[in-house]
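Contributing new records

If you add data, match the layout below exactly. Sequence lines come first and carry their own label; structure lines follow with theirs. Keep one chain per record. Anything else will be rejected by the validation script.
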Amino acid sequence: MSQMNNKVYNAVLSGKSDNNIKFSDLCGLIIDIGFEFKRQKGSHRQYSNIGIREIINIQDDGGKAKAYQVE
């Protein structure tokens, strides 16, 4: 992980900055932890991982990730 993504990773894990995570940083983090971008429909992006059944679906909200999706 790059230095910037370590910062994002720690912010996400702490749960204290859920309202202040940049959407682009969250997308980068999701890819860094092993997920693949699958598709985008409108402002929703979907990511998947071969070994995990759940799909990550996140939405851009004015450049920020939605707090409940960061959780």
